[in-house]
Amino acid sequence: QVFQVAYVIVKAANSPRPGNWILERSLDGATYHPWQYYSVSDSECLTRYGITPTVGNPVYRRDDEVICTSYYVVLLMLARGKIHTSLINGRPSADDPSPKLLDFTSARYIRLRLQRIRTLNADLMTLSHRDPREVDPIVTRRYYYSIKDISVGGMCICSGHASTCPWNEDTQKMECQCEHNTCGENCQHCCPGYNQRRWRPGTINNGNTCEKCNCHGKTEDCYYDAEVDRTNRSLSVHGRFSGGGVCVNCSANTAGTNCETCRDGFYRPTGVLPNDPYPCRLCQCDPQGSLSQVCIKDEKHADPEKDLSPGQCLCRPGFAGERCERCAFAYRGYPDCKPCLCSMAGGTNDDPCSEPCVCKERVEGEHCDRCRAGFYDLRPRNPRGCSACFCFGLSSSCRSLPWGVTQVVDMRGWRVTDRQGLRKVKTFVEVDQVAVRNADVRRTLPALYYWLAPTSYLGNKLTAYAGHLRYSVSYDIPVDSTDSEMISDVDVIIEGNGQALSSGSLGLMLQPFEEQTLSLRLLPENFFDFRSNAPVSRDALMTALANVTRLQIRASYSSVKQAVYRLSAVSLDVASPDAAVGSPAALDVEQCHCPHGYAGTSCESCMRGHRRVDGTLHGGRCEPCRCHGHADDCDDLSGDCMLPLSGCRHNTMGPHCELCRPGFYGNATRGTADDCLPCTCPLSIASNNFSPTCHQDPRGVLTCDQCLPGYIGLRCERCADDFFGEPSSPGGSCRRCECNGNEEAWGGGRVCDARTGQCLRCRERTAGFHCERCADGFYGDATGTGGCQPCQCHPEGATAPQCDRINGQCPCRPSVVGRTCEQCAIGFYGLSSGAGCSPCPCHPVGTAGVACSADGRCHCWPGVEGRSCDRCTSGHYGFKEGGCTPCNCSHTNHHCDQETGRCLCPPNTEGTRCHRCIDDHWGVNPHAGCRACNCSAAHSRGARCDEASGQCSCLDGYGGRTCGECAQGRWGYPACRPCECHPEGTRANTCPAPPTGSLCGCDERTGQCACKENVGGTRCDACLPGTFGLNREDPRGCTACFCFGVSSVCRELQGFVRMQVFMVEGQRSMPVVNQVGQRETMSGVRYQHPEMILHAGEVLKTLHHEPFYWKLPSQFTGPKLTAYGGKLRYTVYFEAEDGSGRSDREPQVLLRGGRNKELLIYRDMAPPRPGQRTQHQMDMTEHEWRYFNSVLDQPVSRADFMSILGGIGNIFIKASYGSRMTESRISEVSLEVAARGNGSSHLQAACQVEQCECPPGYSGLSCQVLPP
Predict the structure, then answer these.
(1) Which H or E run includes 1093?
(2) Do 374 and 460 belong to one domain?
(3) What proportion of the chain, given as a percentage, has pLDDT over 90?
(4) Nearest-angstrom CA–CA distance, 1129 and 621
(5) Are the CB atoms for 946 and 922 separated by under 8 Å?
(6) Domain annotation covers residue 700
(7) pLDDT at 505
(8) Residue 317 lies in a domain
(9) What are 468-498's pLDDT values in tens digits?
(10) How confident is the model over 518-541, as pLDDT tens digits?
(11) Dmax (CA) of the chain
(12) Residue 305 CB coordination number (10 Å)
């Protein structure tokens, strides 16, 4: 049996209380859960059980919290100690146990798991005794567990519904004595018949007694249903619909939640109560006339309006009576009960079964069952049988509209207004109604004002004909009001199409605090003309309903200013095809058969594609719209087809859809859907149509008028020069070339590849798909303000001329350091070798440090010598750190043995004073003696050498002092093959000056010549790809292909020679201009063969100040690309007043040109001396030219220089040389250009002129001619 345990008390016997132990519970005896942990110390709670200890008296924060405590164990008692564990007291819901606490304290088995004895620290006594027998036995003899009593306090689990649970001898367990109408072993459910409310456990504060179900004495069993409780469908014994009791097995033919009704086939007569012993009677329905044997069960199911009372059977059509035992009126022949032939709606016979049938005025047929032509809606209440077709005078054929009736209900947007509707006041919304305060409204409106309906009640409401307008009105006034006076006036006003109709002059007299619901049927007899109070015709009502513009319901009913008026439940019956199934039919509403061009239920509208010509509604005229088949509607007055909501279709526009919309072309008046076709600029799809307009010329050629920026061509099918893409491919477009501002601005033409967007003309020093990085040989931020700087890698220290494009670090040879690889690392030397630096060969004893000189010579201690500082100098001995000791030998020139200091002649010397060398030695030195010649036996002409220099006599091809290496221009010792380096492509520092006749040097191991930047090959005899024209004078060896940025493949022009452009014979004038060329003059200029002469005084009258320049004639300008590599020559002369003149610093030559003649460069040189003819000659290459007026004074790039030569605008040659100058002269002006040779051998070949391989569409030597 499971109990609710309240406490557990454990009492020790003659030993201390347990140290570490766990109190556990179980419901099945197999799985145990802890109730509480106990430990000898707080630290063991954490280390052993992983629980934060509870300090002091146990405290519980949750109903199911398991704690660990050392509270009971720390008390030092040798015996009879108690441990009291309370499982309920002190927990949050101890006074009213929660389900969680009840579950936590439920147990069938209790276990004490003992894990450690309490030693009372006696174990520490052994540390001070050598013999364990010396430990006090009074303590150690109690090292065991002993428990003499365990007390468990608890109770039976009776869910709070029992006071006692006595022992039952029969079941051998305690049983709950359930109270509060509960049952079960643990009182865990309500007893049968007491399930009116959901069972809940009993608490101290609330017994939660189970309540008896109300089954009116028809059963003693029930169950609880939460849904029934939620919806209040069960009647309690207290007479309230409260609770969820549902009766089962109802007797006496009853049924229902409370056995309050009868089962099928039985009924409870009027006046019989549900608690009657036998309330239900048997239905006696006639099997012939009734639908079933089920009748109306009780008053709850009755419907007096349909004459259905308790016990009434549900009859078949044509039958009547309480039991359906006879024929109904207008039927005959029981038990068949067939209809009589005369229509009750269309005939005037008192008995429809009497013949012949007599028809009403507008009815016809043998049985008076159909309307005559021009009439509809056969009704019994119509004295004339049918209603006349109205159809606004356009048709006499109609029928009842086959739609159901629904209601317009909308309490949003109501306002109050005066009778004319001129001023409006907002209302405030209450629950399902709108309201206004009379005092607020009277500030704006008069005493009589109206509710103004929102738009949902307006517009075409012809389908509301004969329907009801229903609404509820009420008002409140202060209870103590004394000036209350009721107001009466027109209740409802309907306006539309010039009609104003009212419901009558005498309206409702409404009392305060009273709500009235009114209903107004929309028939002519219920309305009057608002202005004349005359009766209203059907024509007037139908005209107003065709377009209701205002619906007003009276709002004010009292003169009390503090009145509050309310309006609610406004509904308007209308016919709708979407009415709910089973809705009453809108038989009063006509559906006319309209002539062509008319539409609407009463022909009140023009058919789509037609317009009302005369503005008349009744009998008006509709004619077709003239929209060329491109619109369905047009304006009634103007006939304009461009309506806001519909408008012209098929991509047309105009008052009659006679024009094509922008973006389309064609003839819109042909009347077909394909009159206007989309502009194909170049494609018809929206993503590839790049012009908003287009047109078709008389030849039928389509031309796009307004190509978007970046698109060119008749149909915008190509990208402009600064754009790229594939506009003719679906989804393609033209995007601006992304060259990071590094594209060259000269020469025109494409900036990037028309398809891929790859930049074609990156500015010098930049490269990459988008010119986004520095070119080879440069570094920096190509897209930033810093730009790209030259690498300037040291030719001997770097392995390549290219550096890191970001930080500019050159690739250094071994042991070489520095950004440009310009120096050896500390402890290394030999940068000029071109093979990297070698370790300094310094002796660790004789050297003063690890560094050495550029040639590898170490820094020696005093008295130490040798390249490596590895020996004492002559005249010294005792090699040691710090230096050698001087010899004390004056008679041998202070020479001695270097180890002992004994006086000796210097090595390899002879003579009385050691003054000459022995054979095969040279370089007598009074201290060091002589050095051996060491001439190579294989590559010298003998063993002797020059006594002064030591140079051996070498065989051809060998060099060096001892003939032990290859001579200049050879490599691969000892074979020493010629280098064969091409002088034009080899770096100048490896080639001696031409007069020496020596060959250029190369790498002594590989034979690789040291090539210039744009040169390759082992012998430096070939231009690298993208370059041409190997030339000794070019510092880069070869010239980079320019090709106006559209190609990188070129070669040097062949078969052309240098020709001179001279002054033309008879050309006797040359203008003088100021420095920027804005002003020029011929005043003071004359020709005297062979010179042009200017008089400074005359020129200054026009140009006002110096400097001024000769402006060369037109034969020197224009396209001059073939002048590249040629020379500009001229001779100048000037005179000054005092014979000296005053030189200035202005450029000697200015050259202007480029795409827009925006580039201006200059070349400077030493000015002429007064009175001396001076010839100037300058190369037409970019190397010595600089940008004029440039802050950085940078050298001109090849790209800009070629751009200028592609279109030279002006050549200015300096003509002024100081303020004292009186006269200046120029002669012998010439410019070399390339021209095709004629076989003459005396003409110089034209070098350095490129011939490019141009892409399709481009031509010219440098691809300078753009495609058409």
Answers:
(1) strand 1091-1095
(2) no
(3) 53
(4) 98
(5) yes
(6) yes
(7) 66
(8) no
(9) 999 999 999 888 776 778 888 899 999 999 9
(10) 999 999 999 999 989 899 999 999
(11) 186
(12) 6
Q: Would residue 1096 count as lying in a domain?
A: yes
Amino acid identity of residue 125, one-letter, is M
How far, CA to CA in Å, does 748 sit from each of 752, 762, 1156? 12, 14, 9
As a whole number of angstroms, the distance between CA 594 and CA 391 comes to 8
Q: Is the pLDDT of residue 1140 over 60?
A: no
Q: Is the pLDDT of residue 135 over 60?
A: no
Counting beta carbons within 10 angstroms of the beta carbon of residue 1222, is it exposed (0 to 12), middle (13 to 18) or buried (19 or more)? Answer: middle
Structure tokens at 227: 């849904």
Q: E strands, 243-397, where?
A: 245-247, 254-255, 261-262, 266-267, 281-282, 290-295, 313-315, 319-320, 326-327, 331-332, 338-339, 363-364, 370-371, 375-376, 387-388
- CA distances 609 to 102, 459, 631, 641, 1018, Å, are 82, 21, 7, 9, 90
Percent of the chain with pLDDT over 70: 94
Based on the structure, what is the number of domains in the chain? Answer: 7
Q: Which of 186-195, 1134-1143, 1241-1250 is the least confident region?
A: 1134-1143
Does 494 map to a domain?
Answer: yes
pLDDT digits over 858-879, tens only? 999 999 988 899 998 878 899 9
CB 565 within 8 A of CB 435: yes
Helix (H, G, I), strand (E, B) or coil at 128: helix
Question: Does 440 share its domain with 382?
Answer: no
User: What would the DSSP string read from start to end of 216-271?
Assistant: TTS-S-EEE-HHHHHTT--BBTTSSB-S-EEE-S--TTEESTTS-EEPTTEE--TT
pLDDT band at 129 (very low <50, low <70, confident <90, very high): very low
More confident residue, 117 or 247: 247
Q: Is pTM beyond 0.85 here? A: no
pLDDT at 134 over 60: no
User: Which 3 state secondary structure label does DSSP give 576?
Assistant: strand
Tell whether 1085 and 1165 lie within a shared domain: yes
Cα 261 from Cα 219, distance rounded (Å):
14
Quick check: 733 and 700 in contact, CB under 8 A? no
Indicate the pairing of strand 68-69 with strand 33-38.
parallel
Rounded Cα gap, residues 296 and 467, in angstroms: 32
- Structure tokens of 86? 């309370």
- The burial class, CB within 10 Å (0-12 / 13-18 / 19+), for 529 is middle
3-state helix/strand/coil string of 1011-1056: ECCCEECCCCCEECCCEECCCCCCCCCCEECCHHHCCCCEEECCCE
Give the domain range for residue 927: 914-966
Kindly state the tokens that stand for 777: 């040989």
Residue 628 · residue 656 · CB < 8 Å: yes
Could you tell me if 1133 and 1173 are in contact, meaning their C-beta atoms sit under 8 angstroms apart?
Answer: yes
Residue whose structure tokens are 């007291």: 89
List the CATH number of the domain containing 372: 2.170.300.10
Residue with tokens 């033409």: 749
